[in-house]
Amino acid sequence: xxxxxxxxxxxxxxxxxxxxxxxxxxxxxxxxxxxxxxxxxxxxxxxxxxxxxxxxxxxxxxxxxxxxxxxxxxxxxxxxxxxxxxxxxxxxxxxxxxxxxxxxxxxxxxxxxxxxxxxxxxxxxxxxxxxxxxxxxxxxxxxxxxxxxxxxxxxxxxxxxxxxxxxxxxxxxxxxxxxxxxxxxxxxxxxxxxxxxxxxxxxxxxxxxxxxxxxxxxxxxxxxxxxxxxxxxxxxxxxxxxxxxxxxxxxxxxxxxxxxxxxxxxxxxxxxxxxxxxx
Length: 279
Ligand code: GLU
Description:
Order of helices and strands: EHEHEHEHEEHEHEEEHEHEHH
Largest sheet: 3 strands, parallel
CATH class of the largest domain: Alpha Beta
Bound molecules: glutamic acid
Radius of gyration: 20 Å
Shape: globular
């Protein structure tokens, strides 16, 4: 029996669960041991998230035989928490408004002739970090659309070196620079995955974050946000990714491997669990 922990499964309701999600959900539930298994719906992206997908996810998890502590935390209902965290970071001088469009960022990177890449794509070249104070003020006063970015150099100067621990890979020195000046509040929603997930893990008192190895690097950045905001640092366990017949990791576009499709083909919950043990 694993030691007790508070774990969570945090799907985004942008599609149906596929086998990769199912593996992740079962992994998190098992890792809780005698502790608590929580569910969080990461639905801050109104353009991509749908209530019918959320309902289907809950129904699939129930069908698998999982039970979770209630209430389910739905991120779209907690935007005030993310706004308060942004205000604190802003008051510390850690954020700056970014007025760039995607197109402008692309053009700037192309003109520079080099594009350092991070886990989420090319790094932001820092254009709006260099705006002078008057121009920044004028654009804000004119109501220009803007995101909020973290000034990662300032942030790491403030926190110094940081560590975190992964149960599969051991002690890690945090390298949040991997992400450059990451967006913490998007233009359309005053939040982002990195901010909301880190804050919620603290607010939900999660002690062990389990998620796929594709999010391993994100934990470097989450560790930095924890230090800036005075949040708890949980233990981590990034698990293997479920791969398809081609050896590539499953993605939502692989409709055939949705749990729904497998249920419709006559597989029961124990067949699914067995399959994931060998997949
Ligand atoms: N919502 C994320 C996803 O569906 C998971 C985030 C996490 O576990 O931290 O990939």
